[in-house]
Please model this.
Amino acid sequence: MPHIHDLIDLTVSAYIVYDDKILLMHHKKLGAWMQVGGHVELHEDTDEAIAREIEEECGVEVTFVEPIDHVTLEGSKLLRLPHFMNLHDYSPTHKHLDLAYVCLAKSSACRLAPEEAREIGWFGREEFDRLNLFDGVRYFCEKALDIAAKARLGLTRLSTVLGETEDLDEA
Model:
């Protein structure tokens, strides 16, 4: 999707973890290994955008590490809280405000979106050096692996991409 605003666009990212590895794709336009994600379109909220980006870019079925409250508030919708937020330079004249979510993959099955990426794969910490990740991508990958490890130990609750809340032991 092209940039919507002149100075700053809203984006979402998914740090998807499976067996102590994180899913990264070699982004065609940037020529670098990146997490799954993209722009929030004008007709979407951030929950809709992250679900769409995951489906479009890798097709992985995920469970979000943090649950979302299911309450009805007149004229309002509660949205999933991101694990990370950052404002980063996309170019010298344009920035992205990114909301990033940590997810657990239900399997290692994924598919390449050839219009978006050259390659896709699962990578552990020991492989990060050879990937030559952007500093921010590496930092958030490492933090996401830590968060996912705690989730698997049952130290946090999980919710599926459909928004159902469940204990890790029941997943």
Q: What stands out?
A: The CA atoms of residues 19 and 47 lie 25 Å apart. The first helix runs from residue 46 to 57.
